[in-house]
Amino acid sequence: MSTDVTPSAAPTALRRTAEALDRYRDTGRAWLDGMWHADPLADAVAADRGATRATRALMTDGAAGLDDVPLPDSVQALLDHVSTDPSWLERERLDRSANVLVRYSAQWGLVLGAASLLAGADNWVAARPLLLTGRYGTQPAVRSIEVGEWLSRVVLPGGMAVDGPGWRHTVRVRLIHAHVRRHVVRGGEWDEAAWGVPVPQPYMAFTLAEFGHVSIAAMEHLGVVLRPDELADVYHLWRYVGHVIGVEAGLNPVDEADQVRIEELYRLTSPGPDQYSRDFCRALTEDYLAPQLATLLVGPERLRQDVARRAMYGMSRVFLGDEAADALGVPQGSAKHVVRALRPGLRALDVARLGLLGRERVTRSGYAHRERELTRLRAEHGMTHDLVDAVPGAVGG
């Protein structure tokens, strides 16, 4: 991906870049330099006209689909990377992490929308590729379910084994990113000097924090407290996902402290949200999250919808903090105080649930509940695809 700017300069749309360097030193430099770094291996596949057949086979059937397909050098290089275990990987920890997270499928589902996706929306530069591909602010429910489909395969025993369902989906997401980059650059509307490259390394790393520390910190407000060993396994899982999805080692977070630094750099250098971000926040909350919560409440429909909407906005204020919530146009209200007041009671309920039912039973129930919910949501929204590349005419398809 060509550039007319020097790597030492930060994209002009970013804020407080000098402060990022002063506060975070080498990590800050890696963050700013990373705005010019995309994913050479995946981008080479997307640009290789002779790789179309192999790419489709890889995205459809994973490595197993390549058995009878001639492999161009670009595809072979990518396959070598994603199929080779890094020296630090401990695979048994991936399955342990999956079992931990699935015990909290209901809480995780709430915070992935009300915290993780909205934390990402607080940066219009990061969101710009979605806007230019027509995927921003439209069909927030479908986008959320697509994320859920990917996560359901990653967070699964054996899911991230080479050619496992989570591994295959993660490779697909990596290639989707490459096609998005190619599409928006060729469209002529991308201002590289101002924004860096589309889907750059820092924002890929931040996605890991969205599904890692951002969601974990938000779940703590809902009474979920993980043991230190459980947390370490969860961060190990996201480190491996980062490897497979193409995050460079220098920015791929190893542990909680790394993810926190990534979040801080994302917020520090972000130009903030724009109107598209605020529209997305409102649509995600009012057209998807609140209606889902309303199905769990009792009473007249109008009352249930109103209570659910206020509750979701209250949760977002607690999860994001008032400054970010104000920027995204999240309404003020008393619901945030209710969410905070419920935390001790929710924690007590979770301790009782694990004590009475046992972790193994709760884990089995979590997997079954997640599949039922995904099946219901797909039917409710008329979805016949899993990821966006399976939608005819979509970028990455």
If you had to describe this structure to a student in words, what would you say it looks like?
The chain is mostly helical. It has one domain. It has helices spanning 17-34, 40-47, 52-61, 73-83, 91-102, 105-121, 124-132, 140-154, 165-186, 192-195, 201-220, 228-245, 256-269, 275-294, 301-320, 322-327, 335-357, 359-380. The chain is globular, with a radius of gyration of 21 Å. The model is unreliable at 1-7 (pLDDT under 50).
* Strand segment tally: 0
Arithmetic mean pLDDT:
92
Strand residue percentage = under 5%
Q: What share of the residues lie within helices?
A: 55-70%
Give the helix tally: 18
The H-and-E topology, N to C, reads as HHHHHHHHHHHHHHHHHH
Radius of gyration: 21 Å
Which descriptor suits the 3D outline?
globular
- Give a short account of the largest sheet: none
Low-confidence stretches: 1-7
What count of structural domains? 1
The CA-CA distance between the termini, in Å, is: 21 Å
Structural class estimated from helices and strands: mainly alpha
A few lines on this structure:
The chain is built from 18 helices and no strands. It is an all-alpha fold.
What topology does this entry show?
Layout lengths: L16 H18 L5 H8 L4 H10 L11 H11 L7 H12 L2 H17 L2 H9 L7 H15 L10 H22 L5 H4 L5 H20 L7 H18 L10 H14 L5 H20 L6 H20 L1 H6 L7 H23 L1 H22 L17
